[in-house]
Amino acid sequence: MNNSIVANDIVKEYSSGGTIIRILDSISVSMESGRVYVITGESGSGKSTLLHIIGGLDKPDSGRVEISGQDISNLSEEELTEFRRNHLGFVFQMHYLLRECTSLENVFLPAYMSGISKKDSEDRARYLIEKVGLSDRMTHYPHQLSGGERQRIAIARALVNNPSIILADEPTGNLDERTSRTVEDIFFSLVRDEGVTLVMVTHDMSLANRADCHFHLENGRLKQL
């Protein structure tokens, strides 16, 4: 399976008070299949911007991104939406679970909405919820879950469509240390068991130290540590 990421000469600029700020300065990086990559950097350094560009949630001012061998740089919004649904899973600092849906419903809905039968979607969702250790929370609503449990349900949801790549933006940022380690262990086991490529933006150096590859973003440049 080709779960690789290749970014070439990515440039992203913003205007602030009449001044042009180049937040990403000709970044090129290759990430191989089935590995864990972590990107660290100061707040405002452009980590999330880079992750969003890799995931097709934002467009660079110049440069291109290839995901699993597909150049996504010139895809239409409709094509990008389809590509993300089929190839990518996203986990953010906020879980963004639907308040009116149970854990099981939150996880199976993306698969069901993509055309998979309800039975197969629910079976996949149950398997993933069990895998993140919450089989006893299937019928719970988000307000009945702890912060760590909500984030674990969000991880299960990100995996329900069998993505080849998971992109995670500060996934442990709102969690206490003990819960962060639990979520961290789940991520690493999923990479091993599901064969996905994982790219995470984080301030958590413990997480960075466990990655297969650690990049640091500073002054618009990406450096491998």
TrEMBL record:
Entry keyword Chaperone: no
UniProt-recorded name of the protein: ABC transporter ATP-binding protein
Species this protein is from: Rarispira pelagica
Alphabetized GO MF terms: ATP binding
Domain ABC transporter: 5-225
UniProtKB keywords: ATP-binding, Nucleotide-binding, Transport
Record flagged with keyword Transport: yes
Pfam families in the cross-refs: ABC_tran
Family named by the database record: Belongs to the ABC transporter superfamily.
